[in-house]
Amino acid sequence: MSIQDQIASSQLSGGNAAFVEELYEVFLADPNSVNANWRSYFSALGGSADVPHAPVLARIAAIGKLNGSFQASGKTPAAGPSGMSEAQAAKQASVLRAINSHRTRGHLRAKIDPLGMMVQPEVQDL
Q: CA triplet 104, 8, 51: central angle to 5 degrees?
């Protein structure tokens, strides 16, 4: 059996990824709430040092929605959910925009031509 066959038949294959990720979230919240087999598997990954991802992702989504609504209106919040001042919130929004620009358009500026034969496009967001 090839490694590709083993991966395809594994519980970690693409079709089960959402289930395993959700189970891992449950494990991170309360390790005793999952089956002993899964508990030992996740423990072997070093999951005890990890924190649940759902609250972090929810916070990022909330900040993104907050920043998006203020960007659309052209205003900056006086004090965000974390009690930031207007200047701090504006800086934080700039940082988030820079991170998002590099995540979505960074590949356009990647140096993938060691001979320098390609002309790289100018990316305004970066």
A: 55
